Amino acid sequence: MEKEHDTAVSRQLASAPVGKLLLKLAVPTVVAQLVNLLYNIVDRIYIGHMPDVGRTALTGVGLCFPVIYLMGAFTMLIAQGGAPRAAIAMGEGDSDQAERIMGSCFTCLAAAAVALTALFWVFGERLLWLFGCSGETIQYALPYMRIYSSGSLFVMMALGMNLFVTTQGFTIVSMRTVLIGAVSNIILDPIFIYGLHMGVRGAALATVISQAVSGIWVVCFLLGKKTTLRLRRECLRPSWRIMAPVLALGISPFIMQSTEALLNISFNSSLQRYGGDVAVGAMTIASTVLQMVWIPSQGLGQGAQPIISYNYGARNPKRVREAFRALLRVSCALMFGFWLLVQLFPQAFIRIFNNDPELMETAVWTLRVYTAVLGLFGIQMSVQQTFMAIGKAKASLFIACLRKVILLIPLIFILPHFFENKVFAVFLAEPVSDFISITAAAVTFFFVFRPAMAELEQK
Fold it and tell me: How far, in Å, CA of 439 to CA of 25, rounded?
């Protein structure tokens, strides 16, 4: 029975019409990511509407974003590096190697979670001051960060191991993993925040409990009989031979996520200097709105990844090209549609989180500036996801570093010297760096993807 399922999954990835297959795999992952979006923003919605203190509390929780980004970074380093490697091994017909990769990643995720929990408890308060906290916001940021970081094991297991479910083609199961946790969070948030009068502590605790439910669910599935790749005790001991190529591939999403933390610190510290807590609050809203399209677009990439990785491992360049083109079309349409909505109706997005008049006035124009080039970003997302799927770690790493490390972070500090409106200059850094990096990604793709496909044809 197990072999029959393995054969059916392989046959589907190898020969099913690409458009329909991408739709079948991507719809559940996009739904899962949309639900995951609720996971990420429901805390901020409830917190932003707390009576009297909503605006300050929302800003305080926004200052904890670097902690969340760092947890995600280490999860991506291990899991997003491991899942494509496991899919490529399956495409090559080596399921044993795929299980060794998955087991090694499981152990490394657990070790990283323990280390991060200790780090944030010991140095948490000092880090928050560095992130741009003020005397008003620290009272909300510190308790949220400490409770959230205490659940890092559950957070990283739920996010990381779910990628190994998706890469096997079990996108419905992957969607359920996220759905279970998100529904739990939506139910628990108002109970803990308002019912038990726990405020931001309640929001953090609700998230940790919900992630624990998701983490237990996904691990139980990978231990069960329905999965193609199973977590086995003999595969849990990591080795450098297995983890080196995993980490090499995962370094690109790691840099994307970890630099997101550095980026958030750079934005918040500059905005605190030039515009105070209101400007930092506007940044919290702008970055959360960006997540509304960023997270579903990642779901599209995760839906395309098994098709691209499997057929790359099976040396079928025609299907790799077809899958990339389909991913590019859908990603560009999604990004452009969302960009249009944000530019036309920014107030509608801002009111989701807070309707304070002073914050609204600043957030409307800063959101438009911040997302000015978002409509073109489907190009970069598709290119980067494809590089990840075919194991081109260096190219993916270059694109990730160019946008954030080489361009965006320096521009945050450079542009205010050339504009009278310093807050405008800080937000302008985002679209300037986006345009340059999108252009570079398109050029890089031309010089990397075509030779890779030619090499497959020769083999």
Answer: 29
pLDDT at 15: 62
If you search the block for the tokens 């001051």, which residue do you land on? 129
3-state secondary structure of 57: helix
Q: Please check the confidence at residue 219 and state whether its pLDDT lies above 50.
A: yes
Phi and psi at 352, nearest 5°, equal -60, -35
Asked if 61 and 286 touch (Cβ cutoff 8 Å), the reply is: no
Residue 18 to residues 189, 308, 320, 331, Cα–Cα distance (Å) = 40, 10, 9, 15
* Interval 38-60: pLDDT, tens: 766 777 777 877 776 777 887 78
CA–CA gap between residue 23 and residue 28 (Å, rounded):
9
Given a contact cutoff of 8 angstroms between Cβ atoms, the answer to whether 157 and 131 are in contact is no
Q: Which among 146, 148, 149, 91 has a CA at the least distance from the CA of 115?
A: 149
Q: Tokens representing 164? A: 């190994």
Q: Based on the number of CB atoms within 10 Å of its own CB, is 284 exposed (0-12), middle (13-18) or buried (19 or more)?
A: buried
Alpha helices in 224-376 (DSSP H): 240-313, 317-344, 346-351, 357-370
Closest CA to 309 of 81, 20, 6: 81
Q: Which residue type, as a one-letter code, is found at position 292?
A: M
For 237, the token pair is 């001991």
Burial of 197 (0-12, 13-18, 19+ CB in 10 A): exposed
> Residues 149-198: pLDDT tens digits?
888 898 888 888 888 888 787 878 877 887 888 888 888 988 998 888 88
Contact of 319 with 17, CB cutoff 8 Å = no
Per the listing, tokens 């320096």 go with: 410
**Which residue from 5, 29, 71 is spatially nearest to 167, judged by alpha carbons?**
29
Helix 54-62 to helix 138-150 angle (10° resolution) is 50
Among 160, 183, 185, 173, smallest CA distance to 28 is for 173
> Looking up tokens 């931001």, which residue turns up?
200
* Per-residue pLDDT, 1: 44
Q: Taking the model in full, what pTM does it have?
A: 0.68
Residues 6+ apart with CB under 8 A from 322: 18
Residue 179: partners with Cβ closer than 8 Å, 6 or more residues away: 32, 35
Polymer length of the chain: 459
Distances (CA, A) of 389 to 14, 62, 306, 334, 431: 15, 32, 8, 20, 27
Q: For the chain, what is the total number of helices (H) and then of strands (E)?
A: 18, 0
Q: For 59-105, what is each residue's pLDDT tens digit?
A: 787 777 788 888 888 998 998 888 888 888 887 778 888 889 998 99
Averaged pLDDT, 367-385 = 90
